[in-house]
């Protein structure tokens, strides 16, 4: 489970994500889109139904609980998100992690629902459940089938009014949370943000983030947590958001029946947050990132500030790909450059950053950032970028209904953090922003006298792998070691396993040029989303000596088309507006009326990229510089060691680019690679949203129908691999707190074979079912060998791989490995128990509808199946296989396909004890 405990900033800013952006894996800015008109549209016309006060049911119970119910018919799914208006800002002095600790204890049981029952219910629901602690708000959210709403509400009501909070439970959970702290402190990004927050918010409750410290947890008792719980966890200090496929009137009655009896409490006074802009400071940190970062941070308004909308637009302008900061990249002055705005409720900060290659000139990168920001501060920002940002922010709201959990999160953010009555209220705020206001705010905020500068310098080794443990998996419960009797209300709702119902199929067709089109109409918003992929295997398609040509080609798609140069193309997208990306994987988000214009621009970029020779020279150097750092990074070396352990020595998947091979790639090589690798007969496009199959086909055929495949179809299918054998490898990492361990082997089957469903079901028992799994029980709960453990299958058209992963102290690696092997072998020696099998089936079957709870996930599912060559009804086939499977069949599949004694063991960190 993911956790957002560091700060609200982590929702919008991550240096780990930024480093991926440098390598071409993602973009820093969130995906947005907006509406267009000659005259400014009216407020009501711009507010989507799912975000307007008129389209929801809201109430305030007699005990003060605020309830908002937002209908969304995207899928038979519901998300509940309960927001307690308290966080680390209200923690007692000297105990900064109190709110975070209490969040953990909310999963340790309450009156009428012990921790084992809670874990079992969570597994049977088949959904996702999690929590996060910020400085001002603590949130608990469940996503499950809509019919299970009564169960979700019952859980929250029991936790609101009767948390157990025993000293014995806290002693167990304290060990887990202290390991989490140690793990996060190993992250360069976390250490940087921790120091930054302490400087920017000195003397305020924001001075310490929500994570907490080991010394404070050592002093904390269950009585301390109980006192905090009794002060703040009350219905009159909470907001409950319900979003999804529910009847609002019936849902409200259910809420009243469930929560009405919980008494209100008198709430304490809150601490004021009024940070004073600090004097300029400079930080210096070492990291194991593949690249370095020069950063400048500035105090900025929080979510609830009256000038939040102005600050948000300013951040959009500064991060625009048409802006001066981003222009450092095509100029060859930075591997990546951008700006991030990280608001909390009462205050926030902005962060400008530029990436430089390992061994590069950090002082020059810092000078370039300062120069850009100072020019903008003195001369102002371009007015047209302000208007473009306003339209994008407004239209971004239109996409909210396309994700059930995302819709609940947006409403929670609006009410709990922004003090709004609905997310749609931001439309008027954005409309009112003027370029003059943005310039005035920039002149005041981007003041070098109050900037915190930092240089994050990459080192070859000696630091933990970047991102490991920062905002990572949390453990909220322990696995029961015996069958669990559920409370009557939960047993009645969840015990019976229903026969799977077929999922409606999308409209699928093939254009004359071989392009496959999949259309899933969904009219929950007036938006359309497109996702596509060109099936490629660069390790087979890149000519000998040209490793890296694929990466360069992908990066050059953002440099314009044969019709529009880079800036003109981005402006054309802004003018529609639309969000677009091109390459082997491509996408488009646009409002319904602008779908044809958006697809025309997408096709222009995908089919007629400019690949400018001047920009090619810059991108090639940047790619080589980034790859030099990547090849020396511990994360890459570990990943490489896993592949080398299970693949033959000359397997194509072991090919990798070097700075030298990248610099040998010519401009003509890029053009030739594009012509050879981009083909319509290897392309699938999925269109989802407010459109009919007929309209989608007409538009796609108009723009992509003239695309013709040239030459014979390339061989892009990796060869089958032999069964791997046991081996051991250690990737040194001297200062790692724990060893990171992967046990891996190749398999003799592919996902086209029915037995893979039985293996998936068995793995839910073994290691995929999280708290209910045998691996978690035997490696974590009973023995304490590991902090976290899981297992998974990875499938390809011709290959399969199985892996177990865990983190353990060096002296426990061998013991944990032996325990894992014992559990795998036990799956071969005896069938899973009836209780285990029922739990695994419930988890997998109930999770299937949840995979369709957002348009993004629907599209990703169809593209994944297309890539594997599987039928689009594969989820239904899986459901029937799970439903009818017996324990004996699962045992037989594990006997036939799994080879515990052949698992390779790969470790990153100190030398382990085997």
TrEMBL record:
Residues 221-391, 664-844 form the Peptidase M16 C-terminal domain. SUPFAM superfamilies: LuxS/MPP-like metallohydrolase (SSF63411). The keyword Transcription does not apply. Residues 1-35 form the signal peptide. Residues 67-213 form the Peptidase M16 N-terminal domain. The keyword Hydrolase applies. Pfam families: Peptidase_M16, Peptidase_M16_C. GO terms for molecular function: metal ion binding; metallopeptidase activity. Keywords: Hydrolase, Metalloprotease, Protease, Signal. Belongs to the peptidase M16 family. This is Insulinase family protein.
């Amino acid at each position: 489970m993911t956790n957002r405990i560091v700060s609200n900033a982590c929702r919008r800013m991550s240096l780990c994500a930024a480093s991926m952006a440098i390598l071409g894996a993602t973009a820093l800015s969130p995906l947005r889109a907006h509406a267009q008109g000659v005259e400014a549209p009216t407020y009501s016309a711009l507010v989507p139904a799912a975000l307007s006060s008129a389209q929801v049911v809201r109430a305030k119970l007699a005990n003060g609980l605020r309830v908002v119910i937002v209908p969304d018919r995207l899928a038979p799914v519901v998300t509940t998100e309960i927001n307690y208006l308290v966080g680390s800002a209200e923690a007692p002095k000297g105990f900064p992690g109190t709110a975070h600790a209490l969040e953990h204890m909310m999963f340790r049981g309450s009156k009428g629902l012990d921790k084992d029952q809670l874990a079992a219910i969570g597994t049977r629901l088949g959904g996702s459940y999690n929590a996060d602690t910020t400085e001002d708000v603590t949130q608990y959210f469940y996503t499950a089938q809509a019919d299970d709403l009564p169960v979700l509400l019952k859980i929250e009501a029991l936790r609101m009014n009767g948390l157990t909070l025993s000293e014995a439970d806290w002693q167990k959970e304290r060990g887990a949370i202290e390991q989490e702290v140690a793990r996060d402190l190993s992250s360069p990004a976390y250490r940087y943000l921790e120091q930054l927050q302490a400087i920017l918010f000195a003397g305020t409750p924001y001075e310490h983030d929500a994570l907490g410290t080991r010394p404070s947890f050592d002093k904390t008792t269950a009585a301390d947590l109980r006192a905090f719980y009794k002060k703040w966890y009350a219905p009159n200090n909470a907001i409950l958001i319900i979003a999804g496929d529910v009847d609002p009137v019936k849902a409200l009655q259910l809420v009243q029946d469930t929560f009405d009896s919980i008494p209100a409490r008198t709430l304490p006074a809150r601490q004021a947050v009024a940070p004073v802009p600090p004097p300029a400071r400079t930080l210096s940190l070492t990291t194991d990132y593949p690249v370095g970062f020069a950063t400048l941070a500035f105090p900025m308004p929080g979510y609830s500030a009256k000038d939040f909308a102005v600050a948000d637009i300013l951040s959009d302008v500064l991060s625009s790909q048409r802006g001066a900061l981003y222009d450092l990249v095509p100029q060859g002055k930075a591997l990546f450059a951008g700006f991030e705005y990280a608001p909390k409720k009462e205050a926030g900060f902005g962060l400008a950053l530029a990436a430089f290659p390992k061994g590069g000139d950090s002082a020059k990168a810092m000078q370039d950032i300062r120069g850009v920001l100072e020019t903008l501060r003195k001369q102002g920002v371009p007015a047209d970028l302000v208007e473009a940002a306003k339209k994008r922010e407004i239209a971004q709201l239109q996409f909210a209904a396309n994700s059930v959990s995302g819709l609940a999160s947006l409403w929670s953010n609006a009410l709990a953090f922004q003090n709004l009555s609905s997310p749609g209220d931001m439309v008027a705020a954005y409309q009112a922003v003027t370029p003059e206001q943005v310039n005035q705010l920039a002149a005041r905020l981007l003041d070098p006298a109050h900037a915190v500068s930092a240089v994050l310098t990459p080192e070859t080794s000696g630091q933990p792998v970047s991102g490991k443990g920062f905002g990572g998996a949390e453990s909220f419960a322990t696995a029961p070691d015996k069958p669990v009797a559920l409370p009557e209300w939960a047993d009645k709702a969840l015990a019976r396993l229903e026969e799977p119902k077929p999922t409606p199929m999308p409209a699928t067709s093939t254009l004359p040029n071989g392009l496959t089109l999949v259309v899933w109409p969904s009219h929950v918003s007036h938006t359309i989303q497109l996702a596509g992929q060109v099936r490629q295997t660069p390790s087979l398609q890149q000519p000998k000596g040209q490793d890296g040509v694929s990466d360069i080609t992908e990066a050059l798609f953002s440099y314009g088309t044969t019709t529009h140069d880079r800036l003109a193309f981005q402006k054309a997208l802004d003018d529609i507006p639309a969000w677009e990306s091109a390459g082997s994987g491509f996408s488009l988000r646009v409002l319904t009326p602008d779908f044809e214009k958006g697809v025309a621009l997408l096709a222009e970029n995908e089919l007629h990229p400019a690949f400018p020779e001047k920009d090619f020279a810059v991108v090639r150097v940047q790619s080589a510089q980034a790859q030099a750092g990547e090849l020396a990074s511990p994360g890459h070396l570990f990943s490489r060691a896993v592949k080398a352990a299970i693949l033959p020595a000359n397997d194509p998947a072991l090919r990798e680019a070097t700075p030298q091979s990248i610099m040998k790639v010519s401009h003509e090589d890029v053009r030739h690679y594009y012509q050879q690798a981009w083909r319509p007969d290897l392309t699938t496009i999925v269109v989802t949203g407010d459109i009919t199959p007929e309209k989608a086909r007409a538009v796609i055929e108009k723009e992509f129908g003239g695309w013709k495949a040239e030459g014979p179809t390339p061989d892009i299918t990796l060869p089958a691999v032999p069964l791997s054998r046991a081996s051991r490898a250690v990737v040194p990492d001297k200062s790692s707190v724990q060893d990171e361990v992967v046990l891996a082997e190749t398999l003799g089957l592919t996902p086209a074979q029915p037995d893979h469903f039985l293996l998936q079901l068995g793995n839910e028992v073994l290691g995929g079912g999280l708290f209910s799994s045998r691996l978690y029980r035997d490696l974590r709960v009973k023995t304490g060998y590991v902090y976290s453990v899981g297992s998974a299958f990875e499938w390809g058209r011709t290959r399969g791989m199985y892996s177990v992963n865990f983190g353990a102290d060096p002296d426990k690696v061998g013991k944990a490995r032996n325990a894992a092997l014992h559990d795998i072998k036990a799956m071969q020696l005896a069938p899973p128990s009836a209780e285990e099998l029922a739990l695994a089936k419930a988890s997998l079957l109930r999770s299937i509808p949840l995979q369709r709870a957002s348009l993004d996930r629907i599209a990703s599912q169809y593209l994944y199946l297309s890539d594997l060559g599987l039928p689009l009804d594969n989820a239904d086939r899986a459901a029937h296989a799970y439903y009818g499977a017996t324990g004996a069949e699962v045992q037989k599949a594990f006997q036939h396909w799994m080879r515990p004694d052949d698992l390779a063991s790969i470790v990153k960190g100190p030398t382990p004890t085997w």
